[in-house]
Amino acid sequence: MLKIPHTNLTFFRYKVKIELSFSGDRISSDGGLLLLRELDSQLNLLSSVSNCIYDKRDHRYTDHSVKELLTQRVFQIAAGYED
User: Does this model's pTM top 0.70?
Assistant: First the structure.
């Protein structure tokens, strides 16, 4: 198994240092989604893309916006849950 030393990470907006340890390989595979969420909050990429999608659904009968659906799908694929 590849050994990766501890590393420190500073989140963009809050300037908070977080210590990462990659020794818990069986704990969770979804930790990278936090970084993806932070990156999207900085770039507003999913908001920009969702604004380009025309939503022809009747809004009286919808619970989730196009941005919410797009965000769910992109994060789902990024986490390896394609289906």
Answer: no
Helix or strand or coil: residue 20? strand
CA distances from 45 to 37, 57, 62, 82 (A): 11, 23, 23, 20
Q: Which residues pair with 10 in a beta bridge?
A: 17
- In the block, residue with structure tokens 């965000």: 71
Each residue of 21-79: pLDDT tens digit?
Answer: 666 666 666 778 888 998 998 899 999 999 999 999 999 999 999 999 999 999 999 98
Q: Tell me if 17 is assigned to some domain.
A: no
The total domain count for the chain is 1
